[in-house]
Specification:
The chain has helices at residues 54-63, 65-91, 94-109, 125-132, 136-148; strands at 2-7, 13-19, 39-42, 111-113, 116-120, 152-155, 158-161. By secondary structure, it is an alpha+beta fold. It is globular.
Length: 168
């Protein structure tokens, strides 16, 4: 996994998105020559990153309508994802954002284990805080509370969600 971050002048880190295996990033630069101040950091030890020049990618899109359609669909999904993230920051409290983060990761990266969902990850509690716009202490409190209520079981590199639909 790779996290895309930006930092404030005070050094506070915000995780804009988390890139999972087989995903792409940097597409916002296809039409713009603007220099962005985002940083991509590997979360896992074993990451392979492949790069393609913007002009080469544009040529592939011109030549292959099926690829272009898939790319447009992916852009639409990214816009929806960003709208959802924005709304969660505005309308949800810290607990709801953390629970939403767990549910989203269960659906996109989880593995069904019986009736439960297992999420294996390399994120720290600080990473989750930076992603959800909360503090590490709040993440720790919420995870401990969910575990105390037997809704999750977590270790350093994994979270087992007992029932994703009932997680709250």
């Amino acid at each position: 996994m790779i996290k895309i971050i930006s930092k404030s002048d005070e050094g506070r880190e915000v995780i804009k998105t988390i890139i999972h295996p087989t995903n792409i990033f940097g597409i916002e630069h296809l039409l713009s020559q603007d220099v962005r101040s985002n940083t991509a950091k590997s979360i896992d030890k074993d990451v392979t990153c492949l790069a393609i020049a913007a002009n080469d990618f544009k040529n592939f899109l011109k030549q292959d309508w099926t690829l272009t359609e898939k790319f447009i669909k992916m852009l639409g999904a990214k816009v929806t994802y960003l709208e959802d993230r924005f709304e969660s920051q505005v309308f949800q409290d810290a607990r709801e954002r953390i629970v939403g983060f767990l549910k989203a990761n269960a659906y996109t990266n989880g593995r069904q284990v019986g009736l439960e969902m297992l999420i294996k990850h390399s994120l720290t509690q600080q990473d989750i805080a930076n992603y959800t716009g909360t503090s590490r202490q709040t993440v720790t409190y919420v995870l401990n509370d969910l575990q105390r209520k037997n809704q999750i079981y977590f270790k350093r590199k994994s979270v087992l969600i007992r029932d994703v639909e009932r997680l709250s």
